[in-house]
Amino acid sequence: MTNKDVGEYRGRTLRRLRRPRVLLAATGAVAAAALAFVMVPNANAAASTLGAAAAQSGRYFGTAIAAGRLNDGTYTTVAGREFNMVTAENEMKPDATEPQRGQFNFNGGDQIYTWATQRGMKVRGHTLAWHSQQPAWFQSLSGSSLRQAMIDHINGVMAHYKGKLPYWDVVNEAFAENGTRRASNLQSTGNDWIEVAFKTARNADPSAKLCYNDYNIENWSYAKTQGVYSMVKDFKSRGVPIDCVGLQTHFTGGSSLPSNFQTTLSSFAALGVDVALTEADVTNASTSQYSGLTTACMNVPRCVGITVWGVRDSDSWRSSESPLLFDGSGNKKAAYTSVLNALNAAPPTSPTPTTASPTVSPTTSPTTSPSTSPSSSPPPTGGTGVILGSQSGRCIDVPNSSHNNGTRVQLYDCHGQTNQTWTYTASKQLTVYGNMCLDAAGSANGAAVQIYSCNGQANQQWNLNSNGTITGVQSGRCLDVWSTSNGAQVQLYSCSGQANQQFRLTAR
Ligand code: XIL
Question: Quick one: DSSP state of residue 487?
Fold first, then answer.
């Protein structure tokens, strides 16, 4: 890799949003009388882990995980504490998942999936069609038989993980540095191989967001960036299903942060796709480049999250460049602090008005059926109480006791004050403060859950299901959180049966 624009990054410094914190000092009867008027102490103090800090703006912070390191206690302690998204570093690639034609092996991928999801983390799928890390049998094919093998591979792997992975890197690294298609055996099957891969993937798992992923596409004025941009624009204009672009963000191997990175992210996003930083690492973990890349993502609403390519320097594929956030002993480096501060400085995601269309591209199927049929189940609990997340032990809370339309709700330590007290009504509303409703700002995966004046519409109606989930009547999707921390924002997500979607209205 050669690159470009050594990072003289002029990131916008965002003013930290400070929330008032008022101590409850009163006692006894005075306290009872005073409670109604006292502002509840609340979240939005700086979060202390990468995942929780990212969750404050509805984003994730992830890492690559290697199955072979899951028995290393330092590794799993740091990874389990800091991250809420995981990418298998090698275990879901074609050579790992289909070592012989038609014989799939998901041992490594499943190990990582289980480790992550048991901790409430999500997993990005990586990757289905790539010129590299192909099994030998695949490399020996060409023409229509190679094309068919690619299709069969996508179908086989996506069927195994169907409904489980929010994102898949369907095609990886298909462009050359000059912005034309990279020469490869897949490219030799015909220029339409990429769109065939995406169409196959959409049919195989309509719930997954489908990404194109590449390196050296961070600099907006670079030919390769423009080549990928043109392809995504073309796909969107012709209805080829694509939902996201992954920018690997390897500022190693000679690359560095370009000053126009944010322009690149916002330009891709303007095509109607999510963007994500999927494999970040930086030579010698430059603090300015790490904070710059983080801020660039925070400044783009459709930048959904950042993944670093490994936990400790010693785990990195480029360990000689010491490019990660933790040293070989698992200690936080200066770059860690610079990233954490940039995450904590992010503005909360701007709430989408209730009338807005969903934020995912229209090619994404709007609704995935939950695994149970919630609307037929009578609510197991009802009345008035807190909405308790079973994984976190925390309650759904209106930050700052805000009464403003569009305030996103979050997880916070349960205290049962009015900003955590919800009433389930006969018309399936969950009301707070008497006249405001829990409201879905859209129906797609990732849609914000907020408070809004009650208006009787379906995006304000909820089913309290006997399986412990709460689903939106309009979307069919579950209340869901990315993390268990104070400040984790609540969103809609396809029901997965996982612990981060278990919420109960519980009388207190
Ligand atoms: C790398 C892994 O980190 C290495 O362990 C492996 O030997 C080679 O692949 N772009 C990608 C990643 O999309 O899958 C690559 O991961 C790094 C470059």
Answer: T
Q: What is the pTM of this model?
A: 0.67
Q: And the tokens for 166?
A: 């929010």
Which two tokens mark 480? Answer: 């869901």
Task: For residue 279, indicate whether it is catalytic.
Answer: yes
Q: Which residue, among 177, 251, 252, 170, has the nearest Cα to 213 in the 3D structure?
A: 170
**Active-site residue identified among 89, 91, 98, 173:** 173
Q: Which two tokens stand for residue 222?
A: 């670079």
Instruction: In whole angstroms, give the CA distance from residue 450 to residue 407.
Output: 5
Active site residue 98: no
Please tell me the distance from the alpha carbon of residue 165 to that of residue 209, in angstroms, as a whole number. Answer: 8
Output the DSSP codes for 253-300. TT----TTHHHHHHHHHTTT-EEEEEEEEEGGG-HHHHHHHHHHHHTS
**Which residue type, as a one-letter code, is found at position 41?**
P
Q: Is the CB of 90 under 6 A from ligand 1?
A: yes
In angstroms, the Cα distances linking 489 to 58, 408, 451, 483 are: 6, 7, 12, 8
Query: Is 368 touching ligand 1 by the criterion CB < 6 Å?
Result: no
Number of the ligand 1 atom closest to the C-alpha atom of 213: 13
Model pLDDT for residues 362-401, shown as the tens digit of each residue: 333 333 333 333 333 333 446 888 898 888 878 899 998 9
Question: What is the model's pLDDT at position 137?
Answer: 98
User: Of 497, 285, 487, 306, which is closest to residue 398 (Cα–Cα)?
Assistant: 487
The encoded tokens of residue 404 equal: 């403003």
Q: Identify the burial level of 337 via C-beta atoms within 10 angstroms of its C-beta, where 0-12 means exposed, 13-18 middle and 19 or more buried.
A: middle
Q: Whose CA is nearest to atom 3 of ligand 1?
A: 317
Strand partners, 397: 410
